[in-house]
Write a structure and sequence with these properties.
409 residues, alpha/beta, Rossmann fold, 2 domains, 6-stranded mixed sheet, globular, binds pyridoxal-5'-phosphate
Length: 409
C-alpha cells in the first residue's frame, strides 16, 4: 500500500478491494479542492450565511473570577446550526459531493447528532439521504430519528449484531459499496480510511483559524493552553490546528473517563491502560480492545465520546508528545456542566463539558494571568434527560409518564 495517509505509524486505508476506486476518486477531488483558493472562500461563505460562522469567542469573566484565574476564553461552536461543530464537516463534504457529481449520501449515527447534521446538509444540497442506525440507538434517540425523517432522510434500523453503532457502520459500508457511482459516504469524525481523517480535519480547521485570529485580536497574544474534548477527535483537531506550529502553546485533549479509568467503564483509548494499537474500521490507531483484538464496550455520560477508536492524527501527536491527553470522569463532567450553566449562562453539551472539566481541574496549577482557550464543541439542550437524571430531578420521569398516559387515554 502507498504511504500517503499515514501519520507516523497510524492511519492508512485498510479497505476491501471494491472500495479502492471510490476512495481514490474522493482523494483526487479532495486534492484538487485543497489547492483551489476559491473553494475555501465558497466554504467560508456558505458557513457564514447558513451557519453561524465565524462563531464568537466569549471571555468567561465569571468563571475566571470563580477560579481566581487563569483567563478563560470559550470558542462557541455550540452556536453553529444544529448545535455543534459537526456541521462544519458535513457542509464541507456536501461541497465535495457536488464536485464529484454524486446525488446521494449515506451515513451511520449512534447518538443521532451526526445523522441530523447529515440529513440537514442533504436537505440543503438536494441530495437523497439514507442514515443507518442500530435498533438500540433508534429507540434511545427517538427525537433525533424524528428530525432526520422530517428533514427528508430515510432512517434504516439495523437489527444485526448488537444493534448499535458498529453494526450500523457495516450496513452503511455495504450500501456504499453497492451504490458507489451515485453515493458518497459521509464520515462524521477524523477517523476511518484515508482521506477521511485529513479531509474532516481540513474542514474543522476553520475553528482553529478563526480562534487564533480572535484571541490575538482580543488578548494580543497566543493562549498558554488550548483544551478540547476528544471522541473521534474532529473538534479537537479543528481547534488545535490553529496552534500546532506554536510550540509555546500547550494543547490538551480530554477523553471520556466514564466511571474512572480503572472501572473498565470509560472511552479512554490514549490515557487508560485499555487502549492499544490495532487495525479496524479501515485504519490503524489506538483502539479500546482486549489482548485478542476484541473491541471492548465503551461507556461515557456523553454519547458523542463513546467510540472505540480515535483519530490516527491524534494518535501520532500523542506519540510525539505534541498533544497531552487527559480523561475526565462523568462526575467531574456533570459538575463542570452545572458550574458553567450557573456562572456563564451557557448550557454545554456533555461532550464539551469534558474540556471544561479538564481545565477546571488544572486551573490551580496555572498563573492567574495565563490565558486558556476552550473549544465548546456543542450545546447541551440534547442532554436534558441525562442531566436531569444525573442531578436527581425526578419530575422529568413524571413528565414523561404523564405525557404517555395523556396520549394513550
Ligand atoms: C460528536 C460530538 C463530539 C465528538 O466528536 P469529535 O469528532 O471528537 O469532535 C464532541 N462534542 C459534541 C458536541 C459532539 O456532538
Amino acid at each position: 500500500m502507498e504511504r500517503s495517509g499515514y501519520y507516523g505509524q497510524f492511519g492508512g486505508a485498510f479497505i476491501p478491494e471494491i472500495l479502492v476506486a471510490t476512495l481514490e476518486q474522493l482523494q483526487a477531488v479532495f486534492g484538487q479542492i485543497k489547492k483551489d483558493p476559491t473553494f475555501w472562500k465558497a466554504y467560508q461563505s456558505l458557513m457564514s450565511t447558513y451557519s453561524c460562522r465565524p462563531t464568537p469567542l466569549t471571555y468567561s469573566e465569571n468563571l475566571t473570577r470563580h477560579f481566581k484565574g487563569p483567563h478563560f476564553y470559550i470558542k462557541r461552536e455550540d452556536l453553529n446550526h444544529t448545535g455543534a461543530h459537526k456541521l462544519n464537516n458535513v457542509m464541507g463534504q456536501g461541497l465535495v459531493v457536488q464536485r464529484m457529481g454524486k446525488t446521494r449520501v449515506v451515513a451511520e449515527t449512534g447518538a443521532g447528532q451526526h445523522g441530523v447534521a447529515t440529513a440537514t446538509m442533504a436537505a440543503k444540497f438536494g441530495f437523497e439521504c439514507t442514515i443507518y442506525m442500530g435498533e438500540v440507538d433508534v429507540v434511545r434517540q427517538r427525537p433525533n430519528v424524528f428530525w432526520m425523517e422530517q428533514l427528508g432522510a430515510t432512517v434504516v434500523t439495523v437489527k444485526d449484531g448488537s444493534r448499535i453503532l458498529k453494526d450500523a457502520i457495516n450496513e452503511a459500508l455495504r450500501d456504499w459499496a453497492t451504490n458507489m457511482d451515485s453515493t458518497h459516504y459521509v464520515l462524521g469524525t477524523a477517523c476511518g480510511p484515508h482521506p477521511y481523517p485529513e479531509m474532516v480535519s481540513y474542514f474543522q480547521s476553520i475553528i482553529g483559524s478563526e480562534a487564533r485570529d480572535q484571541i490575538l485580536g482580543k488578548v494580543g497574544r497566543l493562549p498558554n493552553r488550548v483544551y478540547a474534548c476528544v471522541g473521534g477527535g474532529s473538534n479537537a483537531l479543528g481547534i488545535f490546528q490553529g496552534f500546532l506550529g506554536d510550540s509555546e502553546v500547550e494543547l490538551v485533549g480530554v477523553e471520556a473517563g466514564g466511571e474512572g479509568l480503572k472501572s473498565g467503564k470509560h472511552a479512554s483509548r490514549l490515557v487508560s491502560q485499555d487502549g492499544s494499537i490495532g487495525v479496524a474500521q479501515g485504519y490503524k490507531t489506538y483502539f479500546l480492545q482486549n489482548d485478542d483484538g476484541q473491541m471492548l464496550e465503551t461507556h461515557s455520560v456523553a454519547a458523542g465520546l463513546d467510540y472505540i477508536g480515535v483519530s490516527p492524527i491524534l494518535s501520532a501527536y500523542h506519540e510525539q508528545g505534541r498533544i497531552r491527553f487527559e480523561a475526565a470522569t462523568n462526575d467531574e463532567v456533570l459538575e463542570a456542566t452545572r458550574l458553567t450553566m450557573k456562572k456563564e449562562g451557557i448550557i454545554p453539551a456533555l461532550e464539551s463539558a469534558h474540556a471544561l472539566a479538564g481545565v477546571f481541574r488544572e486551573s490551580s496549577q496555572m498563573s492567574t494571568d495565563d490565558v486558556v482557550l476552550i473549544n465548546l464543541s456543542g450545546r447541551g439542550d440534547k442532554d436534558i434527560f441525562t442531566i436531569a437524571d444525573a442531578l436527581g430531578d425526578e419530575s422529568w420521569k413524571r413528565f414523561i409518564v404523564n405525557r404517555a398516559e395523556a396520549y394513550s387515554a
